[in-house]
Amino acid sequence: MELSCAGTGGAMTERTRFERLALPHMDAVFNLAFWLLRSRCDAEDAVQDAYLRAYRGFSAFEGEDIRPWLLRIVRNVAFRKLADHKRSSNVISFDAAVSGEPAALQVPADEASAEDMMIGAGERLAVKRALAELAPIYREVVVLREIEAMSYRQIAELAGVPIGTVMSRLARARGELRKALTRMREDERNAM
Amino acid sequence: MQCDRAAELIGAYLDQELDAETRRQVAEHLGGCPGCAAVADEFARLSRELAAIGREPAPEQLASRLPALIGGVVTAAAAPPYVPAVARWHVPAWLRQAGALLLICGATAAVSALWMSRTAGTAVLERDVVAAHVRSLMQDSPIQIASSDTHAVKPWFSGRLDFAPVVKDLASAGFPLAGGRLDYIGDRRVAALVYGRRLHVVNVFLWPSADGTDSAPRELVHKGYNLLTWSKGGITYFAISDLNLGELRELQSKL
Question: How far is CA B32 from CA B2, B8, B26, B46, B135, in A?
Fold first, then answer.
């Protein structure tokens, strides 16, 4: 009896420690998953998967800052999902090819939040749409840099690439975002 | 510094990620080149706009679901702290060994019992369905006739099956039809319709019911896959996917 109490006590502290450290970062983890997968439902799956993995591997975590560690786990989960999707889309793409637009791309655009509806809505939506159209590796660096305000070094460690690669990916992503937004703004002007 | 080189570095310059010397060179270039200075202004604006979209808010129920999820794996993760806790109790070594043995025996017995009960309780049909679903995902393509056009898929089945399957495109309900194929379940040829749902694939197997009566949907979970089976209009349906049962029920209501 006493033995099992001691056991549960140890488990509780480990679990509480994990929850206290990891759960406050759920928003950041979900946000990265959402932008990589471009779907709230898939992001939710990925976050749950990532937290389970993180908890199982918690004993291996010995850094001070748990956020990059959690983000790395969720980005790996998300990229694996994207790869699975790519494999299965060899088939599904028949109709995508016909309609000319992959179904996944429409996701962020039709999920306008309450904030989007208010002032600056059009601009905000345009930025989201432009970001959603980037390739996953570019969405990743933009989200980590611009929304999570991480340094190039942190991003490099997280994505497992050299700092120079982070720099060039960000430069390319920004160039494409700028082009896409300029195009959208012109379209809007022409439409008026 | 040339404009090409400066353009590569403007982002890193704004992010304050350049070393002092390169930073100075970029600043100097921007001072004398209106074109690059304009790009820098645009990049700065872009950064502000991206920061302004903020984080996509997480679903509210997720915050309460995660602790429950973590609680479910307590035994696996608690193993490392558990061992020292026992050691601290100064239990004689033989007792600890005996306890450990007993635990292992108990766990093995429980697992085998669970496994046997599951194997015995699992309908052959259900196993066939799961096997067919998994097999379809392992192949390059789960479909033989790729089309969302029901008028292309349905005739394809005629001559290949001894019944006419109901083929509906449910794109409007969020389940676009990807196509169909033949499969073999419960010792007979069946129609398999493949629907997409975000990144997920849903296989719907159908064949004529044995007794021809309608039956209400029944939910099954097998190897992590969710199954929903029902009969309607003399046809037995089996829908299987890694989607949650709620979404499968949504599909079922449309078929």
Answer: 11, 17, 10, 22, 64
Tokens 């389970």 locate to A52
User: CB of B180 within 8 A of CB of B167?
Assistant: yes
- CB-based contact (8 Å) between A11 and chain B? yes
Bridge partner list, B195: B177, B202
Query: Residues B200-212: pLDDT tens digits?
Result: 889 999 998 887 7
Q: Find the helix packing angle between B20-32 and B3-14, rounded to 10°.
A: 120
Q: How far is CA B240 from CA A4, B147, B200, B225, in A?
A: 41, 20, 11, 7
Confidence bin at B8 (pLDDT 50/70/90): confident
3-state secondary structure of A64: coil
Q: Look at B46 and A37 and tell me if their CB atoms are within 8 Å.
A: no
Contact A152 B63 (CB under 8 A): no
Q: Rounded to the nearest 5 degrees, what angle is found at the Cα of A139, between the Cα atoms of A136 and A142?
A: 150
Query: d(Cα A55, Cα B58) in Å, to the nearest integer?
Result: 20
Report the Cα A181 to chain-centroid distance in Å: 21
Residues A28, A41: Cα–Cα separation, whole Å:
16
- Residue count of chain A, please give it: 192
Q: Which domains does chain B have, with CATH numbers?
A: 141-254 (3.30.200.100)
CA distance A54 to A51: 5
User: For the CA atoms of chain B, what is the radius of gyration?
Assistant: 30
Q: Which spans in B54-149 are helix H?
A: 60-72, 74-87, 93-121, 124-138
Say if the Cβ atoms of A30 and B196 lie within 8 Å: no
With 50 as the cut, is the pLDDT of residue A56 above it? yes
Q: Name the token pair of A139.
A: 């969405």
What was the pLDDT predicted at A136? 94
What is the pTM for the complete model shown?
A: 0.55
Q: If you ran DSSP here, which 8-state letter would residue A134 be given?
A: S
- The yes/no answer to whether this complex scores an ipTM above 0.90 is no
Neighbouring CB atoms inside 10 A of B22's CB total: 15
d(CA A170, CA A151): 12
Structure tokens at B63: 């915050």
Q: How many CA atoms lie within 13 A of B71 on its CB side?
A: 5
Evaluate if residue B233 carries a pLDDT over 90: no
Q: CB–CB of B46/B79 below 8 Å?
A: no
**Residue from the list B7, B53, B59 with its beta carbon closest to the beta carbon of A40:** B59
